[in-house]
Amino acid sequence: MQAEGQGHLRYGSALVAEVDAIRDVLSACQQGGFARVMMESDSLMAIQMVNGERLVDAGSTV
To answer: Which residues form the RNase H type-1 domain (predicted)?
Structure first.
């Protein structure tokens, strides 16, 4: 899967888009029967969120 460069904004921030894309890919991997996957991202905050090391409250502007 890869990001699409379309002209409209679906997300309020790049972080939200990144985490949503990671979630979608991990879900597809799980549905495909993959038990172990390696994920790479240039967003440390997104990786920390996926790993449960960082929480963002619903009112945050990130």
So the answer is: 12-54
Instruction: Using alpha carbons, list the distances in angstroms from residue 30 to 23, 24, 26.
Output: 11, 10, 6
Residue type at 60 in one-letter notation: S
Q: Which two tokens stand for residue 16?
A: 């939200």
Between CA 57 and CA 51 the distance in angstroms is 16
DSSP 53: S
Query: CA 50, CA 39: separation in Å to the nearest integer?
Result: 10
Q: What is the pLDDT along the chain (62 residues), one digit of tens a residue?
A: 555 555 555 667 888 888 889 989 999 999 999 989 988 889 999 988 888 898 876 555 55
Q: How many other C-beta atoms are found inside a 10 Å radius of the C-beta of residue 21?
A: 17
